[in-house]
Amino acid sequence: GHGPRFLVVEDKVWEFVQRGKMKVFDDLEDSHRIFMEAQPVFFVGTAPLSSTGHINVSPKGLRGTFVVGPAPEGSPFKCTFSYLDVGGSGLETVAHLRENGRIVIMFMETRVGSPPKILRLHGHGEWVEAGEPTFSRRFDQFPREAQEMFPAEKVRNIVVVQVERVADSCGYGVPQWSNVEDRTIFPERYAAVSPEQIWENRSKYSKTSLDGNPTLRRYDPRNLALRLVPHGRWADVAGGMALGVVTSCLAMFFLTKGRLVAPSSSA
What we know:
The chain has helices at residues 3-19, 30-38, 92-99, 135-139, 144-149, 185-192, 195-202, 224-228, 234-266, and strands at residues 23-25, 42-46, 56-60, 66-69, 79-85, 102-108, 118-128, 157-169. The chain is globular, with a radius of gyration of 24 Å. The longest helix has 33 residues, at 234-266. The protein starts with a helix and ends with a helix. The protein is 37% helix and 21% strand. By secondary structure, the chain is α+β, with helices and mostly antiparallel strands. Strands 1, 2, 3, 4, 5, 6, 7 and 8 form an eight-stranded antiparallel sheet that branches.
């Protein structure tokens, strides 16, 4: 019932089982991509630099909320892994990325009857917020269904990982379970509240991390413009700001020139 593509993955995974040890790959292979797309959940791990800081591991589900693309041309990275951060009770991931950029993504095989496997993607992460110049391009890479379910103006941010290391491991201790379905809480909440309401609620608990470190740039006092810019309107706002700056400079120039010329003209 899974078709040939699933069998290809099965062959690759059983090859790993017979190998019986971890392998580091030169690149993210097609079999890895198929394996990742088949999993109902993945995990995101980050940590602060402080030895007393709180390490964080976040589970992520909801199909269609991650994409894998090519690495930037000429870079040493294996690929680019991005996911929609649709919300949560904290914002540790962004706080840690803001401090040091370290991140690991982990997928694991849990389907009943499938051979065990764990896949880890280590890399350097950053995040992009609604209103920032590259947000629209990043957001448009996600499936249309995910875009409709999680509108851009309500998405908390997009986490973008430049993957430096791709490795698998056994997964022998991971249990098997049957996934029933994705929870509908997030989609229902997104549909029920306005962007203003959802951001007001987030501002109550996600401005800082557990260790008191800053999170989103929109919460920085100097970023009032970013907080007010709707999705897709950054270019308009930036253009207006640039026009305002140019106009002010020209006005200052002519006023200054007038003051400098005035004495000689009246002599």
